[in-house]
Amino acid sequence: MPNPRLSDPWPAYFADRGHTGVRRIGAGVEGIVYTLGEGLVAKVWSGRPPGDVELTREVYADIARHPLPFATPEILDVEERAGVLVTYERELPGEPMRGDSAHEDYERELSARHCDALLTVLRGMASVPGTEAMRRLTVQGDDRPLWRDHDCFRDALAALVVRAAARNGPALAVCVRDFEAGVDRTRKALRSLPEVPVTAVHGDLVPPNIHLDADGRPVAVLDFGFYTTAGDPAFEAAVAAAVWDMYGPYAEEHARELTGLFARELGYAPTALAAYQAAYALTTYDLFGRDESDGHFRWCARLLRRNAVFGAA
User: Fold this and answer.
1) Pairwise CA distance, residues 222 & 284, whole Å
2) pLDDT per residue over 292-301, tens digit each?
3) Any alpha helices (H) in 111-250, and if so which ranges?
4) Structural domain of residue 132, as residue ranges?
5) Of 54, 190, 208, 247, which sits most exposed with the smallest number of CB within 10 A?
6) Do residue 75 and residue 102 come from a single domain?
7) Shared domain check, 191 and 177
8) What pTM value is reported for the model?
9) Secondary structure of residue 123 in the 3-state scheme
10) CATH label of the domain that carries residue 270
């Protein structure tokens, strides 16, 4: 069992199990990832009950059975140590598209290479039908599966907006004018959207979660789970446009350009994309902090202040 006195006991733990060259390669909302060599990685989960892993494994398998131009995660083995869930997964190829925008400034001009890679990933994800397992997933921060008691994505997401806004809405209302009316406008806009066939939604296509090869082609998509569900592929596109560059000096400009690009190239209605971006902000604003000292909270507030659906007259 890992020694709790060590600042990071897991490399020694994996080494004791016979893995050589153990190295920490990433960390995110859901946990820390270590490469173990021989095409294998281990993910040490945080905040995930061990019983949930079989559902995650089923969702991964649902995605992997469809031919995609990029690799996706596959869970090979599972264990629990001192109440901590550890999954062993195949190592995915490529290198992250970009570092996180919180740590590096992006250039003003969006590159054709990155735009093409994003479109390839969005089209690929939209080719995977939504499944019952995906419908049973719970969005980060919520207390129930997104689709529970709902038959369509738009209604399920509208209900989540109401629940999430009620969690810590007064804190966000301090930063966003006409908050309650904006929540209601977003809810109504979501419920007015046409019903569409649902597909697999990753829900967190930030640049570090997309791996490219040396020629700029996407070869892997990783870190499913933060907002993974079965849903409208336009929601995936809306969120991807918004989170590409969240903190850089050209963040708002990049979000606007990518939203327009996805509307043109993928045929999504701009009003739907705006509604989905407002919904994303309203359902994730308090996951890392509950005031403007937190970067994600500030980003959500800024997105809502400029959003055409949330702030419509």
Assistant:
1) 20
2) 999 999 999 9
3) 112-126, 132-135, 153-173, 179-191, 233-243
4) 95-306
5) 54
6) no
7) yes
8) 0.94
9) helix
10) 3.90.1200.10
